[in-house]
Each structure stands twice: as structure tokens, then as C-alpha cells.
Amino acid sequence: MHVHRFERVWLVAALGMIVLFVGTVTYGAVVAGYGMVDAEGGQVDTTDPAASEDFREPGVYEGSEPGHYDVYVETRRFAFVPGTADPIRVPANSTVTFHVASVDVLHGFEVAGTNINTMAIPGQKAVVTAEFDEPREYGLVCNEYCGEGHHDMAGTLEVVP
Ligand code: CUA
Hints:
Elements: H1 5-40, E1 42-43, E2 59-62, E3 68-76, E4 79-81, E5 88-91, E6 94-102, E7 107-111, E8 117-120, E9 124-132, E10 136-141, E11 154-160
Parallel strand pairs: 3-6, 5-11
Antiparallel strand pairs: 1-9, 2-3, 3-4, 6-9, 7-8, 7-10, 10-11
Dinuclear copper ion (CUA) binds near residues 146 and 150.
């Protein structure tokens, strides 16, 4: 069978692009994407994050510096612990570091109205820090589809005077 020279050139080019695209996506998912969270966070036990060295029982803890708080949040189908049943409560004029881990599937942790928005990847801890000056109530939202209750997965953060 005779294949025209230009046809062959474009065939090779097209195949080359497919290999390149698949390679890019694979690299992004396996190497770069998951490494991002790990850079600041750490590994946690998927079934029981609180048992991990990098995690504590869910709740609000006073940090080592005055005005600094650490909040440990577990995400689960379909709640934030704390956050959904009991609001997360921190004082105004504080710096808050959120440590977020999932006990089951991929969830999101967004504090609506702020730039806090991270994924909770099973087995990984996500860490985000923000300052809260004014007393205010914020909504917590899950941004990753996690099952039939995803749209109900919400909570509250109260910044109290
Ligand atoms: Cu959790 Cu969507």
C-alpha cells in the first residue's frame, strides 16, 4: 500500500501529539498534582487520620504563638468534623491554620467568601492558613463530588468577638 509522504508526516505528528498529551496528564496526576499537597502537608492514615503523627483529634487548638490557632478538620461523607454538627469557632483577630484530611473519599474544603479552598485527598493532609480580623460567620462547602449527599455537605465557621 502506498502512503503519500505528507500523509505519513501528519500521521506521525498526530501520534506524537497523542503520546505527548497522555504523558502530560499522567505526569500531572502522578508526579506534580499529588506532590503539591504533600509539600506542605503530610501523610495520614486514611481510615483514622487522628491516629497519624501529622494529625490530631478533630477540633480547635491554641497554637504555639498567641493569636494563632490550629484547626483539625476531618471530611467524611457527608460532613465536616467539626463544622457540620458543631460550628468551628475561632476568635477574631487570629491566624488560623486548617489541617484537613479525609476519612473516606475525595472531598473539598472551602471557606466561602475567602480564598481558602483545598482538596482533601484520602491519605494526605492539606494545610492552609488565613487571618480572620472581624467577627463573622462563614459557610463551609465541599467542592469535590463525593456521592449522593455531596450537595448537602456544608458547615459553619464562626469568627467570634
Ligand atoms: Cu464531600 Cu462533596
